[in-house]
């Protein structure tokens, strides 16, 4: 029991947070029920460890491909590999019919080295140095142009060679206002920009239009796609329209839990009940003059409409009819949603302590960059694999990391557990393959990067193998 009495609300309940139960794919359930295997893996590869499985990745690819075939339109998913660095995710492009969206020289080089064909590759990098453009040009990889200087650079480096290009657009009007983006060419200027530059650079071969919108609004994507279809009528030779990523995925089992958490968070901030986050972090909400204002600045972890259903929603009806009639291929670049259920992170408990407020801190052998959300928090319950399951006494804890920063608190949310973890227990953070494990990882304090392994069910036996990525350093 928490005993400090320092906080007014602590005495009321020690299960003071709300649950956010993650969805777990069968392979994760399977491994979770074999803690000895996981302990061996941590012994061999170190803590933390990123464990992946390719089955859900291909299931996700197939779901998108089924939408295209059900709507009878040509389409392809290009995996935005910035969301996860593992090389194993590049190996199934031919067999499972997907492509790779690359955002840097090394992403492209590694994809080519893994044998991904040029027609399954696209370069959408935000900044495109000569080294990247040269590699793309040499290998006939489609380049998505963002600005005039890129046109000049491609033209200079191609030296007359034909280069397949698309144009990234932005500034689409939606619900009466124009969406701001620092990327792309304004849709209002697009026709002139494209026709003029194609006329003055005849080696640029126009293939299609591209956008990637900030946020996750499906209606906004539908509307931008409709604008691109309209523009394509003024441009000769549009073979594809690429609507980028941002297709929602669903991390959580229960909408009620998600809504209850939001309510509890706001109550905690307003002081009406005990805080549910570290130092009462509002995760976007703020208390102004006694009122909770602002909005939750995390990923929307619960989504009824997600992945293939989200794509279906964008395309169905007249959009699909128009694409079909025009013979235009619909491309998407999902990162996060293709990685749904593809990986989790597991780490070892090193210490337990109580802070000045009486809150339990569980120190793990990992750091904040090894599971870091671009949003305010990663809102999924972790799973503790206890070595010893006696003395069930519920407790609320924070999981803390190894960096010397006060803010290295791995989850901002306070987590309710059945009992206090012990040293050497393991903690699973589910569904971290998309952005969480790789996007912000760093080697500060000379901590090595986490190893990445893939697990395969071979006749009922779960076998681990190292992703080749572990050996690739730049
Ligand atoms: C151009 C482009 N395509 C695709 C993606 C992937 O988006 P998501 O992982 O949300 O699907 C991004 C993400 O930033 C992007 O910038």
UniProtKB/TrEMBL annotation:
This is Diaminopimelate decarboxylase. It comes from the Bacteria. Residues 62-259 form the Orn/DAP/Arg decarboxylase 2 N-terminal domain. Its cofactor is pyridoxal 5'-phosphate. Keywords: Pyridoxal phosphate. It comes from Portibacter lacus. InterPro entries: Ala_racemase/Decarboxylase_C, De-COase2_N, PLP-binding_barrel. The lineage of its organism: Bacteria, Pseudomonadati, Bacteroidota, Saprospiria, Saprospirales. PANTHER family: DIAMINOPIMELATE DECARBOXYLASE (PTHR43727), GROUP IV DECARBOXYLASE (PTHR43727:SF2). One of its GO terms (molecular function) is diaminopimelate decarboxylase activity. GO terms for biological process: lysine biosynthetic process via diaminopimelate.
